[in-house]
């Protein structure tokens, strides 16, 4: 009997550089950290209430905070009685899979950043409409005004320019994977680089004399966030920008946030005072959450301009002192946010004011406070190899699929999930089970289902959590018994170092004495040893029963790893 097909899945976790200003070891953090985690879990439920109403209404707003919650292992797995919502832990992974399968089913302009993020995180662009996504990125460059800004209205230009610079900065930062997956050439990257540099020059030239970029503190904070990112990455990416000017702009911008012009007030929470920002004269959760996550906590985490002196009711304080001062501190602001969450059962459970932008801002601020390594360092970054899993001896016995596996590395536990594709309606969980370290066997009843996506969630011994999606289009029950003679062995890549590898062939069958069918490899024609250089086809085009709306044939060759 010839050896069976082997599938290797590489599991990952994010590296995180240490920070000079890590508040997570403070006594104040210890007192409210668990409460923050519980609040984030409650908030994840609200996005999936009443048929995912809020998620569908503001997917681009929800995506960053739900992704962060997933990485922090804070997606709620249970929903309280009398709360009309589905389980975030079960539903969110399928939503993310749908983003990779059908990115342009919704408004691709709104989804451009989540799509780019998934491409970076998975190392794999969506399986459809790559040309559309590439043209949207290039179109963003073309939409830049002659003066270097973006936006139609003067009051919107700073925030819109910062948002465009931020996205294009990530295109440059992850040039290899974005260029390879979306087909961007050197000319395109040169244009992106120039657009980032011109956008930064415009921002630095349009900061007010008082330090403000925008009269709205939340939009102002988003500009500060982009300045911090460009400052951090400029040398690494070889950007021709004024780093000293950027640092000075961050300092002035942080000062402005504590000036009377920003609408800041100080709330007494349990005996200490925290800065809270107002809208129309009243303390506002959305504005405060955005200022906290985009500007203050980010500057503190990366220790950028934290020696700047800001105004408090007790006089001048350095920004870094606001994580240690017993009377005026940001921990009080976090407690103020916690007190504003809806905790009673019903459709508003877990939200702040039953509003998408407000809930995302508060949730994101709590996540940034709770786990800045994941929220800041772990978002725009593919993770590093921590463990490896092999699947082998894929066997079908009637409607039952039997998979033998081996897990090695620093992993504590694994959860495997198979999903079935329902086209534009999304992907649904078919089977889920726990895996153990070492060798084991998965037995799955697949009667009536086509397993379309395979996902692993790994919990590591240091408490971090990571996940990996197998490549969409891998239909495991179809491994055995496919008769097509022109199907060739393929190697399908899941990400730069996170991968689902199908090697040795997919076609052919051999029967055990017990009557089961076993996957066996088919010889690869042409090329060197092991068939290298022979004909290769992508799974989506070659396997029958592909996702709805996708063409057949060998049009999916771009999915084969290089």
Automatic annotation (TrEMBL):
Region (Disordered): 505-562
Biased composition regions of type Gly residues, renumbered to the chain: 526-536, 543-552
Biased composition (Basic and acidic residues): 508-525
Name of the molecule in the record: Terpene cyclase/mutase family protein
UniProt organism field: Methanopyrus kandleri (strain AV19 / DSM 6324 / JCM 9639 / NBRC 100938)
């Amino acid at each position: 009997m010839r050896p069976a097909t082997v599938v290797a899945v590489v599991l990952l976790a994010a590296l995180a550089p240490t920070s000079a200003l890590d508040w997570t070891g403070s006594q104040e953090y210890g007192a409210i950290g668990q409460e923050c985690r519980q609040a984030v879990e409650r908030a994840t439920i609200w996005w999936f209430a009443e048929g995912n109403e809020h998620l569908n209404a503001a997917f681009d707003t929800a995506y960053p905070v739900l992704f962060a919650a997933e990485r922090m292992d804070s997606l709620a797995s249970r929903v309280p009685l009398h709360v009309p919502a589905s389980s975030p832990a079960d539903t969110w992974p399928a939503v993310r899979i749908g983003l990779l399968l059908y990115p342009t089913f919704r408004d691709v302009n709104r989804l451009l950043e989540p799509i780019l993020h998934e491409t970076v995180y998975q190392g794999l662009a969506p399986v459809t409409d790559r040309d559309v996504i590439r043209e949207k990125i290039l179109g963003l460059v073309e939409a830049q005004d002659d003066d270097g800004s973006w936006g139609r209205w003067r009051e919107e230009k700073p925030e819109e320019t910062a948002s465009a610079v931020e996205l294009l900065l990530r295109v440059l930062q992850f040039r290899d994977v974005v260029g390879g997956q979306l087909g961007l050439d050197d000319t395109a990257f040169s244009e992106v680089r120039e657009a980032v540099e011109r956008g930064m020059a415009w921002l630095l030239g349009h900061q007010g004399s008082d330090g403000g970029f925008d009269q709205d503190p939340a939009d102002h904070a988003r500009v500060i966030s982009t300045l911090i990112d460009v400052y951090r990455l400029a040398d690494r990416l070889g950007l021709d920008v004024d780093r000293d000017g950027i640092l000075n702009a961050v300092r002035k911008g942080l000062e402005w946030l504590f000036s009377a012009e920003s609408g800041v007030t100080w709330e007494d929470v349990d005996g200490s005072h925290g800065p809270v920002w107002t809208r129309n004269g009243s303390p506002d959760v959305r504005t405060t959450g955005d200022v906290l996550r985009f500007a203050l906590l980010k500057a503190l985490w990366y220790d950028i301009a934290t020696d700047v002196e800001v105004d408090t009711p007790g006089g001048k304080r350095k920004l870094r002192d606001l994580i240690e001062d017993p009377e005026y501190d940001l921990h009080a602001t976090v407690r103020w946010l916690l007190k504003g969450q809806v905790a009673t059962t019903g459709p508003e459970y877990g939200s702040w004011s039953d509003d998408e932008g407000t809930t995302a801002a508060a949730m994101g601020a709590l996540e940034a406070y709770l786990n800045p390594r994941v929220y800041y360092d772990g978002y725009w970054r593919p993770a590093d190899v921590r463990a490896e899993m092999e699947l082998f001896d894929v066997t079908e016995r009637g409607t039952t699929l039997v998979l033998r596996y081996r897990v090695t590395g620093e992993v504590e536990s694994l959860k495997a999930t198979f999903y079935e594709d329902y086209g534009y309606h999304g992907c649904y969980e078919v089977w889920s089970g726990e895996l153990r370290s070492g060798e084991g066997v998965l037995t799955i009843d697949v009667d009536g289902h086509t397993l379309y996506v395979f996902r692993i969630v790994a919990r590591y011994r240091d408490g971090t959590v990571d996940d990996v999606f197998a490549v969409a289009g891998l239909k495991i029950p179809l491994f055995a018994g496919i008769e097509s003679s022109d199907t060739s062995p393929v190697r399908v890549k899941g990400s730069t170092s996170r991968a689902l590898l199908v090697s040795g062939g997919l076609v052919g069958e051999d029967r055990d004495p017990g009557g089961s069918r076993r996957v066996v490899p088919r010889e690869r024609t042409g090329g060197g040893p092991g068939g290298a250089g022979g004909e290769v086809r992508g799974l989506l085009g070659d396997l029958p029963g592909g996702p709805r709306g996708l063409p057949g044939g060998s049009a999916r060759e771009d999915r084969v790893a290089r």
